[in-house]
Specification:
Largest sheet: 9 strands, mixed
Structural class: alpha/beta
Distance between the termini: 57 Å
CATH topology of one domain: Rossmann fold
Mean pLDDT: 89
Number of strands: 25
CATH architecture of one domain: 3-Layer(aba) Sandwich
Low-confidence stretches: 357-376
Helix content: 25-40%
Strand content: 15-25%
CATH class of one domain: Alpha Beta
Radius of gyration: 24 Å
Number of helices: 16
Oligomer: single chain
Strand order of the largest sheet: 2-1-10-9-11-12-13-14-15
Shape: globular
């Protein structure tokens, strides 16, 4: 193996070389060692190479992986990368409409998914000219593909080559693929590993309850155990009580979670006893309800360390673990190797993480009294703009909207820094809704709602929710025809469930006689938000 990992799948090879008998994955009653996982990854890589899939759009062939958190997902993603191909993780709960967009936009050659996904993909073959193979995991065809002899050849791709294409929702338009290179994915592990004390080490057991098709679960969870040669406990579906039993059974030491997990756990009476083995608990993807954080800490005597990141940053940018003391509501400070600045609407730099800090170590006692106190407890809010080796290469297929010539990328998030240099999120520049850490863009939900014959117009926005952070609320104007007169909230909810993943579906629908519009005809969501 190469001295330093170049391809993300090299992490599996390294873990197998240093500890082949060490546990890699726990799943139900099954235990998979790093040595066994490496052999399976080799076999699948060999089978994929044998397909001789053609490159296109300037990149190796794309393989969609639409599976829950099962060992087959792990084998598939590392096998695809070791074969020198591009992995496209996909939510297996996507509706046919959502699946069709991702498969078509990415020009996917192979789909490896659940039986339901495979059947859905079969039904759209005529619309997907690049699609060559559809494999339902568990079927003989998939077993045959991954059952060949192990092959230890180097993958042939790495560094700045495209590794993973993760589809993420913006504030308008269809979901777009964030292009993450091997270098970016590996860099984020080096950056996180530099945080002290260490978050994950070789002796840790990490709870893998976050969906692996999400960038957070994929790299900060699965990628982290491979990077350190640690063990992971796969959880297909998060159930608060069942998951706590798994934590206790496998003596989990590190929890990588999202706010809804901690909210649910904090309400259980035996939380403290179940989590006695846990030494570090982190959360990200959405703000954590302060009351839930207080309940969790009171029961476990451990804080929940909050972080911030995006799919486009592979994903971690900041963490309260990088702060001397975690503060409630803060996203902490940039992790080592990440530069971050706050920029005003006029383009002026408000704050910079790399700015020199006044050194008071050599001051005489009493000198601190001569320093002027800050006029305010922190900075004005500004857009978060970041730079680091973990940034994506732009959006598929041409790298548009990626980092600028100097490596800086504007996130679209607004924050301020307090007097200590700790960051606090304020808002989105756009209208992105975060439901349990998953991106929901209003435009897509509005499009689906207006496809219903009973809807004349719809506007969607996010409202606070104690469990998921935010939830989707829709304001709907009924159409003037009989269909509009008869349509009910239940009708529209069922319509959305047929066309959207569950987390994107509205949980509240309010019928209104009309929507407020600006002079240019744009819906004034600020006015709706005041009524929400």
């Amino acid at each position: 193996m190469r001295d330093e990992p170049e391809n993300l799948s090299d992490l599996v090879r390294r873990a197998a070389a240093t500890g082949p008998g060490r546990t890699a994955l726990y799943w139900h009653d099954r235990v998979l060692t790093w040595g066994e996982l490496d052999v399976q990854v080799d076999a699948l890589a060999a089978g994929l190479r044998a397909l001789a899939l053609p490159s296109s759009a300037g990149h190796p062939a794309r393989v969609a992986i639409a599976l829950p958190n099962v060992p087959e997902f792990v084998v598939a993603v590392f096998g695809v990368l070791r074969a020198g191909l591009v992995a496209v993780p996909v939510n297996p709960g996507y509706t046919p409409r959502e699946l069709r967009h991702v498969l078509g936009d990415a020009g996917v050659s192979v789909v490896a998914g659940t039986a339901e996904v495979a059947a859905s993909a079969q039904g759209m073959r005529d619309e997907l000219p690049a699609l060559r193979e559809i494999l339902a995991v568990g079927d003989p065809a998939f077993a045959k593909l991954s059952g060949g002899p192990a092959e230890a050849a180097a993958p042939g791709t790495g560094g700045d080559d495209l590794a993973v294409l993760v589809y993420t929702s913006g504030t308008a338009g269809a979901p777009k693929g964030a292009m993450l290179s091997h270098r970016a994915l590996l860099a984020n592990h080096e950056q996180v590993a530099a945080v002290q004390p260490p978050i994950v080490g070789p002796s840790d057991t990490v709870l893998l309850a976050l969906p692996l098709f999400h960038a957070y679960g994929l790299n900060a969870g699965l990628g982290a155990i491979a990077y350190h040669g640690a063990a992971g406990v796969l959880v297909e579906r998060f159930d608060p009580a069942d998951t706590l039993r798994l934590v206790a059974r496998h003596q989990v030491t590190v929890v990588v979670g999202v706010p809804p997990m901690y909210v649910a756990w904090s309400l259980l009476p035996d939380l403290g006893e179940a989590l006695t083995s846990v030494r570090v608990a982190v959360t990200g993807a959405a703000p954590l309800d302060p009351a839930a954080a207080v309940r969790f800490t009171a029961a476990t005597r451990h804080p929940v360390f909050e972080g911030y990141g995006l799919t486009e940053t592979a994903p971690v940018l900041t963490s309260t673990l990088a702060s001397p003391t975690p503060k409630g509501g803060s996203i902490g400070r940039p992790i080592p190797g990440v530069s971050l600045k706050l920029v005003s609407a006029e383009g002026e730099e408000i704050w910079h993480s790399d700015a020199p800090v006044t050194d008071v170590s050599e001051e005489e006692p009493g000198d601190e009294l001569d320093r002027e106190a800050p006029e305010s407890p922190g900075t004005d809010p500004g857009e978060i703009v970041v730079r680091g080796a973990n940034l994506f290469s732009g959006y598929w297929p041409d790298g548009r909207e990626g980092p600028d010539a100097d490596g800086w990328w504007a996130t679209g998030d607004v924050a301020y820094a307090d007097a200590d240099g700790d960051l606090f999120l304020v808002d989105r520049l756009g209208e992105l809704i975060l439901v349990s850490g998953f991106n929901v863009y209003p435009h897509e939900v509005e499009q689906v709602l207006t496809l219903h014959e009973g809807v004349a117009e719809a506007a969607v926005l996010g409202i606070p929710h104690p469990y998921t952070g935010q939830t989707v609320k829709a304001f709907v104007v009924r159409s003037a025809d009989p269909a509009g007169t008869a349509v009910t909230a239940e009708d529209l909810l069922q319509h959305c469930e047929r066309n959207l993943a569950r987390f994107k579906c509205p949980t509240a629908i309010e019928f209104v006689p009309e929507l407020p519009h600006s002079a240019t005809g744009k819906v004034r969501k600020v006015a709706l938000r005041s009524d929400a």
